[in-house]
Specification:
Two copies of one chain form a homodimer. With about 190 residues, chain A is of the alpha/beta class. Chain A has helices at about 1-10, 30-45, 60-70, 130-140, 160-165; strands spanning about 15, 20, 30, 55, 75-80, 90-100, 105-110, 120-125, 145-155, 170-180, 185-190. In chain A, the strands form two sheets. Chain A has an eight-stranded mixed β-sheet, sandwiched between helices. Chain A has a two-stranded antiparallel ribbon with strand order 1-2. In chain A, strand 4, helix 3 (about 60-70) and strand 5 (about 75-80) form a beta-alpha-beta unit. In chain A, helix 2 (about 30-45) crosses helix 3. At the A-B interface, strand 3, helix 2, helix 3 and strand 5 of A face strand 3, helix 2, helix 3 and strand 5 of B.
């Protein structure tokens, strides 16, 4: 998605060969017009997947997921990190190690909002090693639901998460795939979509 | 806002006289069409406030805030709970006790995204004692920015947060004010807006 690649190139900050900071428009401050365009693009890419629910992970995925869900006219659902009292005890859970935060956390989804009739479109802001996405897939499998697509805003193509999921047969579409970063230059892989 | 009051009355679950669960449409699963209507209503209520930024608190406020910001054509910004590595050290911070989670946490906003030129519209999903909102106001004050409005989805009118903020002169508008809850019945205060 050219619009996103341009935004990353113009405003994103790469540090070394691995860290990409996009907190100016994607995961702290939010460019809502861009998020809306991303939602529209995910709808174009996944509209024939038969999704019944758009599922993401708090917090950075929520903004993209709600605009996506609006185009699909579907409910959005976000997995919660750690135990929130107001989720209740009846949850599907999976553990996930976060490299960003340097610790393991538990991801929860209430059993009330996912069941075996659901076809899930996963939406998230970042894909690197794929840990968070795999934990969410574990939860969706516990519910007996089906993953019909995985939409990612920014994929780090030099990390194994996206390839591993594609190799397993998942329909993964990333709006921007960073092939490499060095000396502040960001190189994108040819469009995935 | 009748639409929200009806949704709470039809789908919300009150427990005792204090707990209101709306995780089926507002803070776990998200009814994005409702969130969009709430964003439109906040625009109607605050469009003349001169806001330059819509600021909320992760996670449940994000969905409402991004739709609101879309109507305003403004950036959204969410305060992060606890220290996230990717925020950096240059943050405004305030401590906040969460009754929902039974613990104190630190709320952070990067200094890059708030300054003395900003006029902030605060958007959040719930107002009870007002702790989270007051911590966010503290952060906005640290930045030298101005709070021009506070938009709340659901206010617990029997708790002191909303009244205290109105008494201080803030323009607080709540889309639904719960006056009381008992035996599963939810009573609303006359429309605030």
């Amino acid at each position: 998605m050219k619009l996103l690649e341009e935004k990353i190139a113009n405003e994103g900050v790469s540090i070394g060969t691995d860290i990409l900071k996009v907190d100016m428009f994607l995961n702290h401050q939010l460019d809502v017009n861009l998020l809306d365009e991303m939602g529209k693009e995910f709808y174009r890419l996944f509209k024939d997947c038969g999704a019944t629910k758009v599922v993401t992970i708090e917090s950075s995925g929520i903004g993209i997921a709600v605009f996506t869900a609006k185009y699909f006219n579907l409910p959005a659902l976000f997995a919660k990190k750690a135990q929130h009292k107001n989720v209740g005890n009846e949850v599907y859970s999976a553990k996930c190690y976060s490299f960003t935060h340097g610790k393991e956390y538990t991801m929860n989804v209430s059993k009330k909002y996912l069941d075996s009739s659901d076809k899930v479109l996963i939406i998230d802001d970042f894909m690197a090693g794929g840990n968070a996405c795999n934990a969410l897939i574990d939860i969706i499998n516990q519910a007996g639901a089906e993953v019909v697509g995985i939409g990612v805003a920014i994929e780090k193509g030099f990390q194994p998460g996206g390839k591993a999921l594609r190799d397993k047969g998942y329909k993964v579409r990333s709006l921007a795939i960073v092939e490499s970063m060095s000396d502040g230059n960001i190189t994108f892989r040819n469009d995935d979509c």
